[in-house]
């Protein structure tokens, strides 16, 4: 087993950049992948976000390109990295930018907010954006040395497969081809068979499918955004004094310890009296922290790491939405059941309720007319100042009086309408053996929407339509996209046309009110 990135043969500049980024050492996936990709071999990597995929692919790619640069190969596009969404493309390019800079390789992303790709040696983008650039002669693919397809299962699920199939034959057959996907869906395997010759499988595919080990324990997980992790961790620690916090790097552990201390928590070593939390170094052996309740602020890299931390005491893992498939996979490897739970909710208050009202208004109200009203003020004040002034005026208003009893001869006031529902399209149906209960469990587990909040469920032959509260629509789409259900990769979006029944959703606008649970098959 390699102990350092230097042991994997990477160039000294990349090793130094990895150390500067706080990487304690290569993950198991990186140990298996980097030597193979450095040689220029074609590969199919079965992994997803959370296993160290970006560095596993990006570091050997930059290593090869820096070597080509030393040999005189400059001023042309050498590598194309394809991602399922513009956000994912930007994340990959941003994560690899310090490493590219260390070796003098120019990397760019074909997404808003990045400089033009002219002169870049590595370009990261979605297949449709690359196809547009090729058709307009902004990009030329004839001299590519490497084609990398990241998160291929999600790419196909989100409709990028046609553009990918069009682009791939434009890349010369001698170029290295690398595909990363989990799960390896039927569409992904078809693409590999057609376009990637003599691909090495990482990890190697077993001759016989091994039976999943019987679960011997469980670990809870909470789905949060990156900027929500510290708040979620602090609320969990407040409820469970004596927690041990694990993170990915020693630098990150130090930042978390400082942030928790600033919030008044007593941060110390295991066994110290009056200690609320222990923030372990990334390299700390879990057995030294036995007996404490573990909290992984970052998802573990593999099943062995997950089991070492969480098998004895269970505990909680904080995961980003895109990391949920990885967590479930390594939980199976670790013989642990991954159980979803919600983070402890922040204390409700008037200000929090006011912010929720504003957020709902931004999502649901037609603001065009209001922007016209405010437009003259934007020449004199910033939008934030105008919004703050509007909030001040709104909060000074006298609360609405309680409704009075109806006067004789006058109809009583109608009760307030329940929250509007929206209709979501989900790309699995009866052919995939999906039942309404499967959809309820997936939405509740991945997006934190309780079953009694889910409205009508219509399971069709090849897809399903599900009604959820309007404010939860975006959250469900983000949480479920790219996950698997009954072995099929799931694509979720707003239902773009009416499919029958009362209410409905068209073009992304909320459906009419519906009492939670009405019309749901049992």
Extended strand count: 19
Largest sheet: 7 strands, parallel
User: How much strand?
Assistant: 5-15%
Mean pLDDT across all amino acids = 83
- In which order are the strands of the major sheet placed? 3-4-2-5-6-1-7
> How many individual helices?
17
What does the overall shape look like? Answer: globular
Helix content: 25-40%
Structural class: alpha/beta
- Over all CA atoms, what is the radius of gyration? 26 Å
End-to-end separation in angstroms reads 52 Å
- Low-confidence blocks of residues: 398-404, 414-418, 498-522
In short:
This protein has 522 residues and is an alpha/beta fold.
Describe the structure.
The protein has helices spanning 12-20, 28-38, 53-70, 86-102, 127-135, 152-157, 161-167, 186-195, 229-239, 250-262, 303-310, 324-333, 350-364, 368-374, 383-396, 436-447, 473-480, and strands at residues 43-46, 79-82, 107-109, 122-125, 146-149, 176-181, 200-202, 217-223, 243-246, 277-279, 293-296, 316-319, 336-340, 421-426, 457-459, 464-469, 484-485, 488-489, 492-494. With 522 residues, the chain is α/β, with parallel strands linked by helices. The protein has a seven-stranded parallel sheet with strand order 3-4-2-5-6-1-7. The protein has a six-stranded parallel sheet with strand order 10-9-11-12-8-13, with helices on both faces. It is globular.
């Amino acid at each position: 087993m390699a102990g350092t990135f230097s042991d994997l043969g990477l160039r000294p500049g990349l090793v130094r950049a990895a150390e500067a980024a706080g990487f304690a050492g290569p993950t198991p996936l990186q140990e298996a992948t980097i030597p193979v990709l450095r040689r220029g071999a074609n590969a199919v990597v079965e992994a997803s976000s959370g296993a160290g995929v970006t560095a596993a692919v990006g570091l050997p790619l930059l290593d090869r390109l820096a070597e080509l640069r030393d040999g005189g190969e400059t001023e042309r596009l050498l590598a194309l990295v394809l991602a399922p969404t513009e956000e994912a493309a930007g994340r990959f390019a941003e994560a690899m930018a310090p490493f590219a800079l260390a070796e003098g390789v120019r990397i760019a992303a074909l997404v808003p907010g990045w400089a033009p790709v002219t002169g870049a040696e590595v370009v990261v983008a979605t297949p449709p954006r690359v196809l547009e650039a090729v058709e307009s002669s902004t990009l030329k693919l004839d001299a590519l040395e490497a084609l990398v397809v990241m998160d291929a299962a999600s790419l196909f699920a989100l409709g990028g497969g046609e553009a990918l199939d069009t682009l791939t034959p434009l890349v010369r057959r001698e170029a290295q081809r690398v595909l990363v996907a989990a799960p390896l869906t039927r569409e992904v395997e078809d693409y590999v068979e057609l376009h990637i010759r003599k691909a090495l499988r990482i990890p190697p595919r077993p001759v016989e499918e091994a039976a999943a080990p019987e679960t011997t324990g469980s670990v809870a997980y909470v789905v949060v955004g990156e900027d929500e992790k510290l708040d979620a961790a602090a609320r969990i620690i407040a409820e469970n004094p004596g927690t041990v916090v694990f993170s990915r790097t020693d630098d990150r552990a130090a930042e978390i310890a400082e942030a928790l201390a600033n919030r008044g928590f007593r941060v110390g070593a295991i066994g110290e009296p009056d200690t609320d939390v222990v923030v372990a170094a990334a390299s700390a052996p879990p057995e030294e922290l036995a007996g404490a309740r573990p909290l992984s602020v970052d998802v573990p890299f593999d099943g062995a790491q997950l089991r070492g931390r969480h098998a004895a005491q269970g505990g909680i893992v904080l995961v980003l939405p895109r990391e949920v498939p990885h967590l479930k996979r390594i939980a199976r490897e670790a013989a642990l059941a991954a159980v979803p739970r919600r983070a402890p909710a922040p204390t409700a208050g008037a200000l929090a309720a006011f912010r929720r009202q504003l957020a709902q208004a931004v999502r649901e109200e037609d603001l065009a007319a209001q922007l016209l009203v405010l437009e003259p003020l934007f020449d004199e004040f910033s939008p934030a100042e105008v919004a703050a002034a509007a909030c001040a005026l709104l909060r000074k208003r006298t609360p609405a009086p309680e409704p009075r009893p109806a006067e004789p001869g006058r109809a009583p006031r109608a009760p307030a309408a329940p929250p509007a529902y929206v209709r979501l399209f989900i790309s699995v149906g009866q052919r995939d053996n999906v039942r309404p209960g499967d959809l309820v469990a997936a939405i509740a587990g991945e997006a934190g929407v309780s079953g009694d909040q889910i409205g009508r469920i219509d399971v069709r032959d090849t897809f399903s339509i599900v009604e959820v509260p309007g404010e939860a629509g975006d959250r469900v789409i983000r949480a479920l996209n790219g996950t698997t259900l009954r072995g099929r990769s799931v694509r979720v979006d707003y239902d773009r046309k009416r499919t029958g029944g009362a209410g409905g959703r068209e073009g992304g606008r909320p459906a009419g009110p519906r009492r939670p649970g009405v019309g749901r098959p049992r």
